[in-house]
Amino acid sequence: MSTPVADELRRRIEQVADPELPVVTIADLGILREITEHDGVLQVTITPTYAGCPAMDAIRADIAAAVSPHEVVVHTVLAPAWSTDDITETGRQRLAEHGVAPPAPVRGGPVDLTLGTRPVTPRCPHCGSGETREASPFSSTACKALYVCASCWEPFDYFKPL
Amino acid sequence: MSSSSEVDTGMVLALADDALVASHRLSEWIARAPSIEEDVALANIALDLLGQARLLYALIGDEDELAYRRPAGAFRNAVMLERPNGDFGATIARLLLLAAHQHALYSSLAAADGDLGAIAAKAVKEVSYHRDHARAWTVRLGDGTEESHRRMQDGLDAEWAVWGELAPTQEAVDWATAVITQATLRVPGPVLAVERQEHTADLDELLSTMREVTAVHPGATW
To answer: Which ranges carry the MIP18 family-like domain (chain A) (predicted)?
Structure first.
């Protein structure tokens, strides 16, 4: 249904920020799967990034607050499992602008045509250098790894491919 | 979540209990691991396992009821996972064997339809990172100094001897064997399949610590 009110509510839901990465919206992260309407009540479907993602309750509450006083029912689905490939191009740009290196693609895309080189590491989001190394495959949240730039020596988070 | 009629409740409960108990032991490393990065890594792995346990519990019942109010004797976790932490090498060995087992198991379950298949498909992606992490440490410590090699081997010998309780598949055993060989460690021997063992006082201690807040404030939410 497309009415001015429905469109406005849809826009508000899409603009809900991720609680742990507030520079990106839940739509840009690919957490927001669907918005429909049933008997005049908004039905929103979301999916967790990781099984243990502690932000799910906050996201549900933020969606409810965004459309208040309108009613909304938030459903959670697991399948198909969320992938970092679900992050939109805008989301990837926003992450990079805010110091989080966006993930390499998990599936699809062309094969790497350079043989025998070092594994590709993410570019430093601070200085743009490609000379970076992994400090730990786990970081401040479940979805990120910790990297250090060998050029500017700044540590940074890398959204690890999932 | 759909009805639990089509899932093997006992099997799901065992998977959930394994994940919950392993999660708790890993979380005990926070502020005690060899580096702050490792504190964070083990905490992340513990959080993944806790999330998987919650989804599995929700599939067959009430997660709080199952995690907080069930008697220890009703838990189905493997006893190897409730044993207290000791040397870091033993924790890495345990994680290596647990992740190898979970990865093989969740990979096969992921093909199934329904909620269990969806949980398994999600879990296998997370467990891949746990497996990589355990492999990296096993190789670093095994192929490291004389002391790190000895401690990694001791941990591996102790965990391998009881791994049969998790009934790892041949695929899991082959994967672990390849890592152990790469790490210049000795493969302890054949994996002997054994029944799940009787719980020990270690599980009582673990559960009473985990349930401390709910015991003092029953029904509290935050």
So the answer is: 7-68
